[in-house]
Design goal:
44% of the residues lie in helices and 14% in strands. The protein contains five helices and four strands. It has a two-stranded antiparallel sheet with strand order 1-2. It has a two-stranded parallel ribbon with strand order 3-4. The protein is globular and about 65 Å long. It starts with 11 loop residues before the first strand and ends in a 6-residue tail after the last helix. The relative contact order is 0.13.
Length: 167
């Protein structure tokens, strides 16, 4: 028996996350790209407290809509108070929006079957105020000392696991 389904297209969800206020600011777009990312940035940067902030840091992965030195220059030209910070490749776990995206995947997208893209878009849009009403900043601390301790423990464990050389 074979299962067939109708694929009704895809949507792109762009999200910004204020780590101090635990505030999600999201946008739904029909596709990814520089323009939809720019729309999100414009939305955030024209909203208080970001519009009057001395500096706003945008921590991003290396996705095509905001990759490379060109994206840094484009951001600086459009928003002089904004600084685009690229994470190292394969380090998306350092970006707290990825935690929020994981929540969205589990709570918004995965448990549902959507009749069409409009229903999915509405579900994503409706999630933001619910999330923001309940969210608190992530208690996410991992200092340089914590890293040194972890490396030392791993090294000690690894050394203990290596059998002594036979003589």
């Amino acid at each position: 028996m074979e299962f067939e389904y109708d694929r009704h297209g895809t949507l792109a969800y762009f999200g910004a996350y204020d780590v101090h206020r635990a505030a999600l600011i999201g946008r739904v777009a029909p596709t990814t790209g520089i323009a939809p990312f720019g729309d999100l940035v414009a939305h955030v940067m024209t909203t208080e407290p970001y519009a009057s902030a001395r500096r706003v840091f945008w921590v991003v992965d290396n996705g095509s809509s905001h990759a490379g030195k060109t994206s840094i220059a484009r951001m600086r030209a459009a928003w002089p108070t904004a600084t685009l910070v690229h994470l190292p490749v394969h380090a998306s776990w350092l970006n707290q929006i990825e935690i929020v995206f994981s929540v969205i995947q589990r709570k918004v997208i995965k448990p549902a079957d959507f009749a069409d893209l409009d229903a999915l878009a509405q579900r994503l849009i409706d999630f933001e105020p619910r999330y923001n009403a309940a969210a608190t900043p992530f208690d996410w601390r991992f200092t340089r000392t914590d890293l040194d301790d972890l490396i030392r423990r791993i090294d000690t464990h690894r050394t203990e696991q290596i059998p002594a050389a036979a003589t």
